[in-house]
Design goal:
- This protein has about 160 residues and is mainly β.
- The chain has a single domain (about 15-140), classed as Glucose Permease (Domain IIA) (Distorted Sandwich), CATH 2.70.70.10.
- Helix content is about 5%, strand content about 40%.
- It has two helices and 14 strands; from the N terminus they run ββαββββββββαββββ.
- The protein has an eight-stranded antiparallel β-sheet, with no helix packed on it.
- A hairpin with a 5-residue loop joins strand 5 and strand 6.
- The chain is globular.
- The two termini are about 20 Å apart.
- Mean pLDDT is about 95; it is low at about 1-5.
């Protein structure tokens, strides 16, 4: 049992939505592409709602309903930001299904999204998934080689280390 103390902690982050996996550097917004908010990956959604990518606790729901923060069991703080410049929608097109303090599991419904509204009124429907406290640790982040992700089934990012 002592050997487990030396084992590197690993967190698997699943896709929160069905879609195409893209590197964060390709997100057309410098806040995300230059990793100002942290390490991560993005998914260009093809369909469906947004689901929890990890087991954890909801720590943030944006007043404009376009973003949700989750604290994973390993302490990673994960931001799921639906679309770019979606703050301007003031909640239109988003129906949040969780609240701060709620425990979630991989695959738990976070929000329902009206993609027609997002695609017609936002800059992009891309979903950056960012570890907002990644600058505070020495973990290694590995993005999947998968090009297409299935919500709750495809691991899109793995963290390892302390």
């Amino acid at each position: 049992m002592v050997f487990n103390l030396f084992k590197k902690a690993k967190l698997e982050i699943y896709s929160p939505v069905n879609g195409e996996v893209i590197p964060l550097e390709q997100v057309p917004d410098p806040v995300f592409s230059e990793k100002m908010m942290g390490e991560g990956v993005a998914v260009m959604p093809t369909e469906g709602n947004v689901y929890a990518p990890v087991d954890g606790t909801i720590i943030q729901v944006a007043p404009t309903k376009h973003a949700i923060g989750i604290s994973a069991k390993d302490g990673s703080e994960i931001l799921i930001h639906v679309g770019l410049e979606t703050v301007a929608l003031k909640g239109e097109g988003f129906q949040v299904a969780v609240e701060v303090g709620e425990k979630v599991s991989v695959g738990s419904l976070l929000m329902e999204v009206d993609w027609d509204i997002v695609k017609s009124k936002a800059k992009s429907s891309v979903i950056p998934i960012v570890i907002t406290n990644s600058h505070e640790d020495s973990k290694q982040y590995t993005i999947t080689d998968e090009k297409n992700a299935i919500s709750g089934k495809t691991v899109i990012l793995t963290t390892s280390g302390k």
